[in-house]
Design goal:
mainly beta; 4 strands; about 25% strand
Length: about 100
């Protein structure tokens, strides 16, 4: 348990040593979580324009100092074997902290 059954690939690309791909909306900055046969990832999807009165000048993740739009924050579950999403995403909307 916790060990690979084979050696890890030394090379990979968009076509080499890739079992599947899954579209993930928005931007994510977290590490995937593997739990049994599921993979969980998080993402932040912009859902609007920045508020007109939003403050600027505060440095945010990624170095952006401009006002940010509200985002929909999602936890996405993927099947480890197929890349399909067996569960609906858990969503929370709000402005970035």
């Amino acid at each position: 348990m916790g060990m690979a059954r084979t050696d890890a690939p030394l090379h990979w690309s968009d076509t080499e040593n890739i079992k599947w791909k899954a579209p993930i909306p928005g931007r994510g900055h977290s590490s995937p979580v593997l739990w049994g046969d599921k993979i969980f990832v998080t993402t932040a999807v912009p859902i609007g324009q920045p508020a007109a009165d939003a403050p600027s000048g505060r440095r945010r993740m990624g170095g952006d100092q401009n006002p940010q739009p509200e985002h929909r924050f999602e936890v996405i579950c993927l099947d480890k074997r197929t890349g399909k999403s067996p569960l609906a995403a858990n969503r929370q909307e709000g402005g970035p902290a």
